[in-house]
Design a protein that fits this description.
By secondary structure, the chain is of the alpha/beta class. The protein contains 9 helices and 15 strands.
């Protein structure tokens, strides 16, 4: 396991780590700039499969963070990458929005509701009873059941709202079929991200704010794990789990370099 000073590549969660309610967290912009200055490859990860990387790059820019779309890795991209490796040129019936449909199109998949190879359920704000019924019938007829991420609820201004995992549970109850879930806490999300930037687990660090997704998946993927307390986790939450991150920090600003690089010294 690498020490922090041996880390050459970084993976970081987005919400609760870099941004909170569309506002950049302290140190986030400076940390991204530090990685760019040091030439360290990095990816910003999110389990949210609604948005395309271009959408997310624009949302981050509005919050004060410059993250190019090629530096964003979503559960939708990870799902499309996985399905392409499993069945190149396959077909899918999709419940979801632009994030997952665009990713699957770009991976060479055909969208169909007639004998698809896969039923793929992603995040959406417009779940249709008709589409869920269709998904149930296709899975019962033999389509393979894939889910982009397991989150049962998502945040909104009015409070929690049902998310991908909740809809997947409804389909599972109706079909008796459990889905294969690609997003965190499946370490495949991190492995596909590592492949995207040509990184190795031995010298890659992962920053997250959730013990049950970020940290456990990071440990299982063999990464140096850092939990920040700017998201949903506090000390009481940490104590609930039988595993520990390598580091616990108050926020990403604790990762800012304080002394200059040798190259900076004249």
């Amino acid at each position: 396991m690498a020490r922090r000073d041996e880390i050459e590549c970084w993976l970081t969660d987005m919400d609760g780590v870099l941004v909170h309610e569309n506002r950049a967290l302290p140190g986030a912009a400076e940390l991204l700039q530090q990685w760019r200055d040091e030439g360290k490859p990095y990816l910003v990860l999110t389990n949210n499969s609604i948005y395309t990387p271009r959408d997310l790059s624009a949302r981050l820019r509005a919050s004060g963070l410059e993250v190019p779309e090629e530096a964003i890795w979503t559960s939708a991209l990870a799902t499309a990458s996985f399905l392409k490796s499993q069945m190149p040129g396959g077909s899918a019936f999709v419940i979801g929005e632009a994030g997952i449909t665009t990713a699957l199109h770009e991976a060479g998949f055909i969208m169909t509701d007639t004998k698809p190879d896969y039923v793929v359920v992603g995040e959406t704000r417009n779940y249709s009873f008709e589409a869920i019924t269709r998904a149930i019938r296709l899975i019962s007829a033999g389509a393979r059941f894939i889910v982009t991420n397991p989150d049962a609820t998502g945040p909104s201004a009015e409070g929690p709202m049902p998310a991908t995992g909740a809809v997947a549970a409804l389909i599972t109850k109706a079909t008796g079929m459990e889905p294969y879930v690609v997003g965190k806490p499946n370490p495949m999300m991190f492995r596909s991200a590592l492949n995207r930037i040509g990184a190795h687990s031995e010298n890659t660090g992962m920053i997250g704010d959730r013990m049950d997704t970020d940290v456990v998946a990071g440990i299982e993927a063999g990464l140096h794990t850092i939990l920040v307390l700017t998201g949903i986790s506090d000390q009481a939450e940490i104590e609930k789990y039988p595993f520990r991150p390598d580091e616990i920090l108050s926020g990403v600003r604790d990762l800012l370099r304080t002394e200059p690089l040798e190259s900076d010294v004249i």
